[in-house]
Amino acid sequence: MQLNGDIALKWPKRREEGREERRNLLVRRVPGISAVIDASLNVPEPHLYDAAALLWTARRVNGRAAIRIPAEGEWDSEGLRTEFVY
Fold first, then answer.
1. Which residues contact 79 (CB under 8 A, 6 or more apart)?
2. Which of 45, 58, 49, 57 lies closest to 23 in space, CA to CA?
């Protein structure tokens, strides 16, 4: 949502409209991100968009433009870190 100027996206990422919405947003906001979202990998397309959004977030955290809550997030049952980034 923050990547989209604090406006919620209209479509779920599993729908074609949602994938197109995310792709357009990422290409517009993250220079060079096409290399990530167009990668030929055996990974579901929505996961590539998630990875691209995480790259954007990581850049913000590294540049101290974002805050991680909690500072040390926990890991869920799927091995994903659970935290909010503001």
1. none
2. 49
Report the number of distinct structural domains present in the chain: 1
* pTM for the whole structure: 0.69
53 contacts 47 by C-beta, under 8 angstroms: no
Residues with Cβ within 8 Å of 73's Cβ and at least 6 positions away in sequence, in order, are 81, 82, 83
What is d(CA 83, CA 75) in angstroms, rounded to the nearest whole number? 9
Task: Compute CA distances 46 → 17, 39, 53, 67, whole Å.
Answer: 12, 12, 11, 25
Classify burial at 48, counting beta carbons within 10 Å of its beta carbon; exposed 0-12, middle 13-18, buried 19 or more.
Answer: buried
List, for residues 35-85, the tens digit of each pLDDT value: 888 888 898 888 889 999 988 888 887 787 777 788 888 888 988 888 877
Domain that holds residue 48: 2-85
- CA terminus-to-terminus distance, the chain: 10
